[in-house]
Write a structure and sequence with these properties.
- The protein is α+β, with helices and mostly antiparallel strands.
- The protein folds into two domains: about 1-90, Double Stranded RNA Binding Domain (2-Layer Sandwich); about 95-130, no CATH class.
- Helices cover about 40% and strands about 20% of the residues.
- It has helices at about 30-50, 80-90, 100-110, 115-125, and strands at about 1-10, 15-20, 25-30, 75-80.
- The longest helix is centred in the first third of the chain and has 21 residues, at about 30-50.
Length: about 130
C-alpha cells in the first residue's frame, strides 16, 4: 500500500538537501529530481529497518504541520514499502525445505528446478505477480 511522507527540500551549495521529519534522516541530491529520488530511497530503507525490527514505520505527518524555512520546498514523496522491499531486497536466501524422499527423487528424475517451483508457488499463494 502506498503512502506519502512530507519532505523538506532545501537549496544547498550543490543541489538540494532532503529532510524527512517522520524519520531521523537527511539525504542529498545533485538537483531537485535527484533529491526526490534519494528521499524516496531513504524512506524505503528506513521503513525496511522498522519492519525488520518488528516495528511499524511511522505514519506520515500532516504536510501543513511541517515547519519550513522561507526558501524551503515542502512536497510529498510516495512509497510502497512492500514494493520497495521486493525491488531492492530480492537477494537469494538459502532455505532448507523438507520433502518426502520419493518426491525429491521424482523431481530429480524429471529435471525440475525445485527452487523455481517453490518460488512460483509462494508467489501465487501470496498473490504476488513478481
Amino acid at each position: 500500500m502506498k503512502t506519502a511522507y512530507p519532505v523538506i527540500f532545501s537549496k544547498a551549495e550543490k543541489g538540494y538537501t532532503a529532510t524527512v521529519p517522520d524519520f531521523p534522516l537527511d539525504t542529498h541530491g545533485k538537483d531537485l529530481t535527484d533529491a526526490i529520488f534519494m528521499a524516496r530511497d531513504a524512506i524505503g530503507l528506513a521503513g525496511m529497518s522498522y519492519e525488520d525490527r518488528g516495528d511499524k514505520p511511522p505514519s506520515p505527518s500532516d504536510i501543513d504541520a511541517v515547519p519550513r524555512g522561507a526558501h524551503d520546498i515542502i512536497s510529498l514523496v510516495d512509497i510502497d514499502f512492500a514494493e520497495y522491499r521486493r525491488a531492492y531486497n530480492s537477494h537469494a536466501v538459502r532455505r532448507n525445505v523438507s520433502l518426502p524422499s520419493w518426491l525429491n527423487t521424482e523431481a530429480d528424475r524429471a529435471g525440475l528446478n525445485v527452487s523455481a517451483i517453490l518460488q512460483t508457488a509462494l508467489k501465487q499463494e501470496l498473490n504476488r505477480a513478481k
